[in-house]
């Protein structure tokens, strides 16, 4: 979880003034219950075996790690994040509710994700576009090389990507309603020359209060061909792209443009791609959804 400056409403006694931004983020953005089956399915398809060790880079409150530890008694999760605040929140709200045996199988490291350390992972994940924090090709290559080194010989590297023309529109906000609040994803700035971009997450509530810029992200908007090239340069043998094949409500086929998904559903326009080791790379782009299909490129 990258980020993070936030400003709560100055109005005391409002919902926003007492809102927990990490809880709201977990409810609006993350879906550990659907991520884990996707990781397993991709790994099993490639190696005809079940993965045991997960490494979650930029893990934030490490909800995915906790879900992984809950999924099987032999599974170990490693969460890595440089920010102490979300790690502390995760220890209280995500780790403590687990059984003692499950807690013991979650290892946390407050460190740079580019460090090569800890057990080798069968599945390594960098989700929600977190690696976009690396703005130069040299920095991105350094991270992908570290990811390669942190994976077991038979491993899968899962990344999230975002694409499509609408995702580059400035001053554009997508709004999604949840029980008790609304989630706003603001595309504030996009530089077509450098691809520097700024995004903000806000939350609004029924009493009219707003948690303004609960999270903010200043990234480079990486394109799919660029990421593929750097993955291969880092040593991965193959890159697969996954995308949503059909809209779950309309049954309309999704359109792809230049290998990037332009999703029909309003909430998300993401692609999933995977990188694999052995020297192989499998990239996953976007949120897990129904009707995923691989495209080998």
CATH-scheme architecture: 3-Layer(aba) Sandwich
Give the N-to-C terminal Cα separation: 29 Å
What is the name of the CATH topology? Rossmann fold
Q: What is the strand content?
A: 25-35%
Number of strands: 14
SS content category:
alpha/beta
Biggest pleated-sheet summary: 8 strands, mixed
Rg over C-alpha atoms, rounded to the nearest angstrom: 18 Å
CATH class: Alpha Beta
The fourth-level CATH homologous superfamily is: Vaccinia Virus protein VP39
What's the mean pLDDT score? 82
The level of helicity is 25-40%
Write down the domain tally. 1
Strand order of the largest sheet: 3-2-1-4-5-13-10-14
Order of helices and strands: HHHEHEHHEEHEEEEEHEEEEE
Low-confidence sequence ranges: 245-272, 278-297
Outline:
globular
Query: Helix segment count?
Result: 8
Fold and architecture overview:
The protein contains eight helices and 14 strands. With 297 residues, it is of the alpha/beta class. 45% of the residues are buried. The chain has helices at 15-18, 21-28, 32-47, 63-71, 84-95, 100-104, 137-150, 224-234; strands at 53-57, 76-81, 106-110, 121-126, 151-162, 172-178, 181-190, 196-205, 210-220, 238-244, 255-257, 260-262, 270-276, 292-296. The protein has one domain (25-165, 220-296): Rossmann fold, CATH 3.40.50.
What is the topological layout?
Layout: H1 15-18, H2 21-28, H3 32-47, E1 53-57, H4 63-71, E2 76-81, H5 84-95, H6 100-104, E3 106-110, E4 121-126, H7 137-150, E5 151-162, E6 172-178, E7 181-190, E8 196-205, E9 210-220, H8 224-234, E10 238-244, E11 255-257, E12 260-262, E13 270-276, E14 292-296
Parallel strand pairs: 1-2, 1-4, 2-3, 4-5
Antiparallel strand pairs: 5-13, 6-7, 7-8, 8-9, 10-13, 10-14, 11-12
Helix pairs in contact: 3-4, 7-8
């Amino acid at each position: 979880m990258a980020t993070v400056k936030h400003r709560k409403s100055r109005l005391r006694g409002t919902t926003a003034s007492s809102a927990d931004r990490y809880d709201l983020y977990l409810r609006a953005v993350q879906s550990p219950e659907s991520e884990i089956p996707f990781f397993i399915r991709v790994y099993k398809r490639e190696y005809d075996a079940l993965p045991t060790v997960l490494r979650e880079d930029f893990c934030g409150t490490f909800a995915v790690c906790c879900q992984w530890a809950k999924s099987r008694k032999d599974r170990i999760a490693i969460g890595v994040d440089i920010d102490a605040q979300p790690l502390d929140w995760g220890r209280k709200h995500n780790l403590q509710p687990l059984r003692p045996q499950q807690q013991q199988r979650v290892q946390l490291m407050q460190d740079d994700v580019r460090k090569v350390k800890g057990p080798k992972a069968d599945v390594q994940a960098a989700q929600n576009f977190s690696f976009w924090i690396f703005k130069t090709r040299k920095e991105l290559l350094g991270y992908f090389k570290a990811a390669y080194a942190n994976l077991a010989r038979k491993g899968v590297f899962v990344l999230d990507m975002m694409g499509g023309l609408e995702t580059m529109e400035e001053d554009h906000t997508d709004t999604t309603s949840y029980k008790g609040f609304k989630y706003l994803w603001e595309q504030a700035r996009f530089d077509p020359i450098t691809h520097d971009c700024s995004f903000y997450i806000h939350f609004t509530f029924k009493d009219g209060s707003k948690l303004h810029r609960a999270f903010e992200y200043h990234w480079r908007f990486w394109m799919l061909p660029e990421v593929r090239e750097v993955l291969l340069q880092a040593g991965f043998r193959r890159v697969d792209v996954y995308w949503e094949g059909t809209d779950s409500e309309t049954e309309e086929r999704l359109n792809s443009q230049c290998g990037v998904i332009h999703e029909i559903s309003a909430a998300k326009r993401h692609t999933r791609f995977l990188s694999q080791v052995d020297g192989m790379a499998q990239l996953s782009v976007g949120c897990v959804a129904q009707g995923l299909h691989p495209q080998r490129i």
